[in-house]
Each structure stands twice: as structure tokens, then as C-alpha cells.
Amino acid sequence: xxxxxxxxxxxxxxxxxxxxxxxxxxxxxxxxxxxxxxxxxxxxxxxxxxxxxxxxxxxxxxxxxxxxxxxxxxxxxxxxxxxxxxxxxxxxxxxxxxxxxxxxxxxxxxxxxxxxxxxxxxxxxxxxxxxxxxxxxxxxxxxxxxxxxxxxxxxxxxxxxxxxxxxxxxxxxxxxxxxxxxxxxxxxxxxxxxxxxxxxxxxxxxxxxxxxxxxxxxxxxxxxxxxxxxxxxxxxxxxxxxxxxxxxxxxxxxxxxxxxxxxxxxxxxxxxxxxxxxxxxxxxxxxxxxxxxxxxxxxxxxxxxxxxxxxxxxxxxxxxxxxxxxxxxxxxxxxxxxxxxxxxxxxxxxxxxxxxxxxxxxxxxxxxxxxxxxxxxxxxxxxxxxxxxxxxxxxxxxxxxxxxxxxxxxxxxxxxxxxxxxxxxxxxxxxxxxxxxxxxxxxxxxxxxxxxxxxxxxxxxxxxxxxxxxxxxxxxxxxxxxxxxxxxxxxxxxxxxxxxxxxxxxxxxxxxxxxxxxxxxxxxxxxxxxxxxxxxxxxxxxxxxxxxxxxxxxxxxxxxxxxxxxxxxxxxxxxxxxxxxxxxxxxxxxxxxxxxxxxxxxxxxxxxxxxxxxxxxxxxxxxxxxxxxxxxxx
Length: 634
Fold this sequence. Notes:
The chain has 634 residues and is of the alpha+beta class. It is 18% helix and 31% strand. The strands form seven sheets. Strands 1, 3, 4, 6, 7, 8, 9, 10, 24, 25 and 26 form an eleven-stranded mixed beta sheet that branches. The chain has a six-stranded antiparallel beta sheet with strand order 11-23-13-19-16-17. Helix 4 (164-177) packs across helix 10 (512-526) and helix 8 packs across helix 9 (476-486). The longest helix has 21 residues, at 203-223. It is globular, with a radius of gyration of 28 Å.
């Protein structure tokens, strides 16, 4: 009898239905459309789904796959669902958005607290929910499910890990429409667009990628034939072996009296320090008044290229392993003493320019009171590594074309969506000329895979980055921005222009609330059929050569082009293609005249054509900026 019971229990366990991780407690389902519920079971296993007092039955096929369709429901909840023995609770019905791209979409709320600390501290939006898996690796085959992940509400306990862009976008939608918002967050930092294509579309990009890898491997073997059989160098171990400061200079009281002086922030190569790759130590002594000593504080070290470890009075206080995150290190009560204190920072440079990025906070904060850390520091080079010893290895693209579609988009394709928001392009700027065709292909590909031919696709145009050019220059970022603009030719697309709200010294600007707001404006037009509002700034429409000038016509001008300022950011060229800065004036509600005395027979105009088009100021009366464009045909 015992044996029979054990055998029966085993058979029962095998017969249990499995659900994808998206279908779980706290999920948000798309309103007003039929909904697919799917999963896995033993072959021919009977499956019953109960939802809103209705029962729906199906049977698994010979491979154990099953699915059924629930009728459309209005927004509401919370509801419960049972699938055989599985109970799912706290289900909401509203609008579901897939939030994808690279690091500017991935960037979490915790990274933007400098701008929104008080607002985030008050967040309580249980009807806004995010699903996020920890899976980051790409895959060679489409995956049926995420490795992990769950739905979490936008409450104080969870908000720090929400995508900042996605959260502010959702908050705008919720405020206006008062329906639950679900965010499926799949963005991965550094990912090129090719990695998000499905196997049906990625073949040509995968072949090119494989050829590139083969060529790089061949070059590596030619340079160092023995490298193929060598174990890759552990660069950190090598650095520590050769750095005399390890376990010495981080201690309180280390002798730095003979160390030279450098002014920070800034790049050390600009200040006469010759270190391309390796470790370097920086020491700053500072005074703490009696009134602040022994209190909790926050150490802010801006951005450091590439990585760092920080020590205060001999105590380790924090580390960041790559250059982009802000350095925010908590100092516990009792660490800072009255009078002289010492900060020691060990910085690792992986190649190129290393340093402390300018125009970032370098200070110790006690609430509203601050101790400034800029100015003179002492420094000492720890160890230098030969170029071949760096962590980059053989180079090449980080992601396999199609790999992130397989691992992070494929598990979503059965889930009905309201639309997609997308922030990506930085990783394609080196190949910007092909981006227009590639990006269109991606959008059409996803619409086919999701079986939603009109799936709304809203995206963010690249923000400004770098120091503004003094003369007209070629710009890979501008080319890619213009490719994004031209993608608006696809139906049901919308674009948020952001070159006016970025940061010249940070590829991850903090003003994500305005990005979310501008995406929500486009959602009002594209998705919610709000014809009354203005959703974007001026978009180039056509040109006409009139004598020695060119007259441009724009769409999306709202109440009209803003005319109460001198226009800047325009460039003009003749048949020789040599661009010069141009004069420009608003002629009418939607037209601008552009000319230059240096170009007698103009043929082409371009606008905001720089990685950082700081002076570009064409906008509509609603304050939304015009997109980067060129009148050239690609």
C-alpha cells in the first residue's frame, strides 16, 4: 500500500501543470482584448482555467504544450485565477507595456534620486507593476520562459529597482487614465539592436557577426600564436601582484608625504600622468568640524573612469566595478572624526582616458551641509599593465545577434501588449548608417512575432553627449538620431526627442522623468487617440530652394513654431557638401528660412547635427524641441 501511494504521488507530481513566470501572482493582463493563457503539462493532460467565475478547458498536446483564450475584460481587479491546482492571486487588468532597449531604459530609479528623492520617497502606486527577470545572458535558441522573475508593485519597498523611464512613463499614464499599468522590463545595458531581432530576421546579421569573430580570432593568433593555448590572464590578480599599495596605502596613517599633487576632478592624462591601463591611488585629506564629527554622512565621488574602491580613515566604504554609475557611498556614524580625516581612492583604468569626470558632485554630505572634495589631491601610480593584459580579451561584439530576443523577448510573445517603449541606439552609433533599415526591421519583426501588426512602438531619440562642437562636424550620433526620426514613417510609431535634456559628461543622464513624460505624450497620440494635445516638437517635412536660401516646412508644430528667439543649430551647404553655420528665421507658423552668405547656391540643410547640439533651439510654442534632421536623402 505504501509503495502504491508513493507511485500515485509521483504520477500526480508529474501531471502538475506548469505556468510561465509572467503568469503569476500580481500580474497585469491587457484590457479589452482576448487573452492567451498557456503553459506545460504531461502529454494529453486536461487543463481547466477558472477566472471571473467562468471555467475554460483544454488539453495538452503530445509535447505537453497547452493554451487557451480568455474573452476580453475591462480594466479592473484584483481578481483570482486557478489553473488546475495552481492558484494565482491579485491579478489586475489594465495596459501592459514591454519596456526594452539598453542601459538608459534599464537604469533604475535608485540612480536618479539626486533629482527625485522627495518624490520617490512618497511613491505608493500598487496599480503600477513591473516584471523583471535577472536573466542577462543571450541565447542561441528562443526560450519558452524566463529563468526567474515576478510582478512587483511600485511601492517604497520595490520602487528603487524599477526602470526609471518606465516608471515615470507609467505614472503619467496612470494619472491620466486611472487604469492599472503593467511594465515588462527586459532592457540590457550595452545591447545593440541586432541582439533583439528574432531568428527569422537575424540571419544576415548573425553571419556578419560570425565573420567578425573569425577575423578577430585570426588576427589575435597572428599577433600571438601561443595565445590560443594560453589561459586568459586574471588582470586583477596581476595588478594586485604588482601594486605596492595593496594592503598598505588603504590603511589609516599610510605615508603619502612624497606623493605628487594633482587637481581633481579631471582626466589624469591631461594633467601629465602617464597611465593608460592599470591602478592609481588618490589621497585627499579634509577637515571635519566638531559639530559634524561622528555623524552619518554620504560620500559622493561623481563618476570615475573606470572603476574604484574607496577607503575613509582606513575603512573600506564602497566600490563600483565600471565607469557609469554615480559613486554614492554611505559613511556610518563614528567613522568621521573631529579635525583631519583621510579619503583614499584606488582607481582602475582599463585603457584610454582615466579620471574623475568633471561637473559631478565630489563631496561629503551631512544632510544639507557639505564638505567639498575638489581641488588638490595626492596621487601615486600603483601598477601599469601591458595592453595585452587587459580584461577585454579578443574584442568583438558583446552580444550575439538575436541572442537577447531569444532569452528575453521570446518568453513574452504570447502575452498581449498595449505597446512597446524602447530606449536604445548608443551601441549602434558606430554603424549608424545602417540603423534606419535595422530599426525598421526590428519593429516589423516584433509586430510579426507578437501577432500584433499595429503594435504601437514608442522610442527615445538619443540624448546629447560630449562637448559641443565649435564648427560643423560629422556626427555618428546625429546620423543615428536622424535614422530614428525617419523611422516615424512606420505607422503607429512615436519618438521622444531628448538632446536638450541630456548631460554632456554622462551617457546616462538623470532627467528620466521628462523622458517618461515625452513618451507619454506620444502614447496619447499613437495609442490613446488623443487628438487635442501636442505630442512632439517640430518634425522636418520638406524643403524649397529660393534663391540663395532654403525654406523648410515642418509638421508637429502645435500652436506654431516658437519665434521669440534667435534660431541656432542650423548648418547649410552647397553642392560641395561643405557645411557652415547658417542664419535662420521663423517665416510663419510652420516654416523656417535658412541661409548663409558663405553659400551662394545652397542645396542641403541640417539641424542639431552634433553629438551634443547644445545651441539648437528650434521648438514649438508648447516647448517641445525639434528633432535632429538633414534634408539629404539616404
